[in-house]
Amino acid sequence: MLRGGTVVRRFTVLYASGFLGSGIVLLALTRLMSGVRLSAPTPPSTGVPGDPSGLAAAREEIRDLRTRLADVHGQQEHRWVVASLVALVVMAGLSLLLGRLLAGRVLRPLRLITATTRRISAENLHERLAVTGPADEVKELADTVDGLLERLEASFVAQRRFVGNASHELRTPLATMRASLDVAVAKPEPAAQTLALADRLRAELDRVDQLLDGFLLLARAEHGASADRTLLSLGELAREALGARGPGVAAKDLDLRLEVRTAVRTRGSAALLSRLVQNLVDNAIAHNEEGGWIRVAVDGDGSESRLVVETGGHVLDQGEVDRLGRPFERLGTARTGSEESSGLGLSIVAAIVAAHGGRLVLRARPEGGLRVAVTLPSAAPEGVAVRAGATA
Predict the structure, then answer these.
(1) DSSP character string of 272-330
(2) pLDDT band per the 50, 70, 90 thresholds, residue 238
(3) What is the mean pLDDT of residues 157-167?
(4) pTM exceeding 0.85
(5) Which range of residues forms the domain containing residue 152?
(6) CATH number for 217
(7) Mean pLDDT score of the chain, rounded to an integer?
């Protein structure tokens, strides 16, 4: 029992065993010290010395006294045993209670350290345990954790700063390349090879530009949601994203269904949440089959707002789907168009969801295709159905 269970249980058993052992030793010592029997005093003779009848009566009275003394002593022994058992039972209960109280008192700083450490994440690495008290082992542990958090914060800040600065600095040579291409194409009667090369380079530069935008947005999302949070409707964001991507939907002849069951709202960065919805819709369109379908559903309750984007297609492996929230992770060639993806779309979605205190669940549908569910905290929900079963 000492090896299993929680630390509180182990400390409780140890303290209780110590208290109970002390009680048993105390009762044993009490028993030993009170176990000396005194011999019964010889009663005075009632007869005349030398009188046989008086001597016999005295002896009979002595035997009677000894019998009664033995009975009294036996009763005392019985009462002592019962009292000792009752005392041991009471002592056992008190030992467990005192052991539990002492264990809780001793481990209280550790529970505070655990709760605070569990609350600290990449979004609030600036927080510290800041345990006060004597310079004991607990404070040394807390100071060690604070030092680790400080090093992690510095590492995260340096990483985000590097991504942001590198992305900004790379835009200058990209702009120079675009200008050089424009100058080459603007010359009188450019060669056909020059035009073809310019178109190809522009396409590659567009991809690099999109990749840099993804890096910047990912760095911003991982840094945490911005302070300018507003009240937003996921249904409206979904309508805007689907409306702007009508040509892409029509190009693949996709069956698009938009379902807004309740007018739920959430609070967050308009730019980040809009990009979240756009990335999910773009991902659903790009990695879909010709003549496939997309279902976008928005619902929620008083505590949560949910956005679900489902697509049909081939049966996917759940192990590969679980990795899609990481940067540059893609599925195999079973998903159409995966070779054209930067691999940042769903990782940006995951970072935005985490920055807004939500959850992202990626599931491979048993019938084929992918189901992406985003859950965000609700804010000022309205319990009125706005649109149900609408087809965009």
Answers:
(1) HHHHHHHHHHHHHHHT--TT-EEEEEEEE-SSEEEEEEEE--S---HHHHTTTTSTT--
(2) very high
(3) 75
(4) no
(5) 137-222
(6) 1.10.287.130
(7) 77
* Contact partners, residue 279, CB within 8 Å, separation at least 6: 345, 346, 348, 349
The edge-to-edge listing of strands for the beta sheet with 293-300 is: 255-260, 293-300, 304-311, 370-377, 359-364
Take residue 40 and report the two structure tokens written for it: 């019964």
Structure tokens at 284: 């659903």
The mean-pLDDT minimum among 38-47, 272-281, 310-319, 328-337 falls in 38-47
Q: What is the largest CA-CA distance in the chain?
A: 162
- Structurally, the chain folds into a number of domains equal to 3
The DSSP bridge pattern shows strands 304-311 and 293-300 to be: antiparallel
- Say whether 134 sits in a helix, a strand or coil: coil
DSSP 112: H
Least Cα distance to 219 among 340, 334, 352 occurs for 352
29 and 100 together in one domain: yes
**What's the confidence (pLDDT) of residue 340?**
52
Tokens of 12: 């409780």
By the 10 Å C-beta count (0-12 exposed, 13-18 middle, 19+ buried), 45 is classed as middle
Residue 387 within any structural domain of the chain: no
8 A C-beta contact, residue 300 and residue 264: yes
Q: Are residues 111 and 218 in the same domain?
A: no
Q: Does 172 lie in the same domain as 107?
A: no
Between 95 and 238, name the one with better pLDDT. 238
User: Do residues 281 and 306 lie in contact, with contact meaning Cβ atoms separated by under 8 Å?
Assistant: no
* DSSP H or E stretch at residue 12: helix 7-33
Per DSSP, helices labelled H in the chain are: 7-33, 52-119, 137-186, 192-222, 234-244, 246-251, 270-286, 318-321, 345-355
Q: Does 158 reside within a domain?
A: yes
* Residue 112 confidence (pLDDT): 81
**Cβ atoms < 10 Å from Cβ of 35:** 9
